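#lab-general

N.A. 3:47 PM
ok so I finally got the sequence cleaned up, no stray characters, all 450 residues accounted for. can someone with queue access submit it? mine expired

B.Y. 3:52 PM
send it over

N.A. 3:53 PM
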Amino acid sequence: MNIKKNDYFDIDIIDIGINGEGIGKIDNFTVFVEGALPNEKVNIKIIKVKKNYGYGKLIKILIPSPFRKEPICEHFGKCGGCNLLHLDYNEQLNIKSNFIQSNLKKIAKIENIKVPKAIGMDKPFNYRNKASFPINFTDKVNIGFYKPRSHNIINIDNCIIQNPINNVIIEKTREFIKESNISIYDENTGKGDLRHIVTRIGNKTNELLICFVINNNKFLYKDLLIKKFKDITNLDSIVINYNTNNNNVILGDKIETIFGKGYIVDYIKDLKFNISPLSFYQVNPIQTEVLYETALNFCNLKDNEIVFDAYCGIGTISLFLAKNCKKVYGIEIVPDAIKNAKENAKLNNINNTEFFVGKSEEIIPKLIFEQNIYPDVIVVDPPRKGCDKLLLDAIVKTDIKNLVYVSCDNSTLARDIEYLSNFGFKLDKIQPVDMFCMTTHIECVALITR
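B.Y. 4:20 PM
back already:
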């Protein structure tokens, strides 16, 4: 069949893509349809045709999915924050487990393990403890989130996955801009001062930090800013981040605290962490506890084991495991993160951890083959791109029996399992944990054994 742009078709949606788009077929030609759900019959208009696939615009839902929900946010479909708000939450959990199942089968050639249902939240809204709002000026001041695949900002006055205090902060920022007449950053010219607002809030302490990102080396409105925001009851800190780089990176390196202590305190279980604007810290603290408990379970520690924690960041997993084993060695390439990890260990009076700056694939062989430190378990929590191949090669050279893999991208997890399977490793069990409700992202913990 010759499929052309602007053609109309009625199609059955048979699957869902990683960005929440419906997937249907016209004969053997695949069509992606934003806003459509599996088990729906829809009328679409073809808007783009590639060699083997195309994109359709949803015109009308002819037969709706039994799991379709009315989105409870007016910005749904316009802003890039949520892409599953129109799908029943319980079904979201099933679909996310199916993503993992499909990648294990397709990439890692694993068919004998059933991926359990993702562990979800009782209340899957207002869960994020960190928000970043870009600011620009068109015919008016825009503060909110980028529209998908663009740098157009959708103005937000209420985001249902963020903490509600952000609504107040956005409103007060608009008032501050009006009163100060501060210039707004233009990414095309690289001129203008105010670029971003970043907020962080403690889940257990409720402490609030507001960070204003400025495209300048000085900031002239400190007094007005403090006056404007200091009446927010749980406000702990206001900081200015100076970022004069003309790129997409939100935060620069230089930070000035103009109100409060410059960081917030929060807890994972009974562990205390100091969190600055630059600290990496999981954005869903309630589910972080579930994720780490799952990792601890999979480690199956009995008090006298030694654990290596690769990609340890600020030591959150390391310290969580340290209470249950003899010693944890954490490795991370970012020097500031290791500095924070050491501070966090001291903060919690934990003395059985040691942290190293460097590449895990270089440090792990040194610990084993030069210092004769043999781990019982290696934990990895890599970025989305998965483990560095050199790290996997280093793990293969050890006598390690148990590898616990915390993954934020199950396609790279499946790729790494497939690679390790060439050396006698196999996936033993896996558990998804829903950290990013109302989106297609899913974290999981895998136990890989030799």
